[in-house]
Amino acid sequence: MKKSAFLALAFGIILSGCGTTQEGNTSTPAATTTSTAPAPATEQKVMSADEVNRFKEYAPNLKGGPFITEAEIVNQNEAVITYADFATLKKAKPDTKLKETDFKDYWESGDGINKVLMEEPIRLLREFPALQKVTLTVNHDKKYSISVDRATVEDYLKVNLAEIGTDKEKWRNEIVNKFFTKAERAKYIEKFVKAE
Question: Which of 33, 45, 54, 124 has the most crowded CB, counting CB atoms within 10 A?
Answer without folding.
Answer: 124
